[in-house]
Amino acid sequence: MEDWSWLGKVLILAGVVLACLGGFLTLLGKWPALGEGVGTLFGPLLGWLGKLPGDILIKRDHVTFYFPLATSLLISLVVSLLLYVLSRR
Predict the structure, then answer these.
(1) Are 55 and 69 in contact (CB under 8 A)?
(2) What SS3 state is found at 55?
(3) Which is nearest to 87 in space by CA: 15, 10, 12?
(4) Could you give phi then psi for residue 86, rounded to 5 degrees?
(5) Is this model's pTM higher than 0.70 or not?
(6) 30 contact partners, CB below 8 Å, separation of at least 6
(7) How many angstroms separate the Cα of 26 from the Cα of each of 4, 34, 42, 75?
(8) What is the tens place of the pLDDT at every residue in 8-65?
(9) What is the spatial distance between Cα 13 and Cα 8, in angstroms, rounded to a whole number?
């Protein structure tokens, strides 16, 4: 049986990197002068993410419900393909 501990370590490292990146972008958004630059940098690249045709958005008087179904499926597909390619080594 193959040892999968390396994959666990890679996923933990990826989680730590994503958490640090998320914290950095959150702090960057707190400063208005810098936050505008982030929006103009990532807007054209990832502005479509979260606004795909299969995403569900329901707006009522005082309630907004948003469920990114198509975005979730796309991210799941990309991560699954990436893990498949990494496990084929």
Answers:
(1) yes
(2) coil
(3) 10
(4) -70, -30
(5) no
(6) none
(7) 33, 11, 14, 21
(8) 888 999 999 999 988 887 776 666 655 455 555 556 666 677 778 888 989 999 999 9
(9) 9
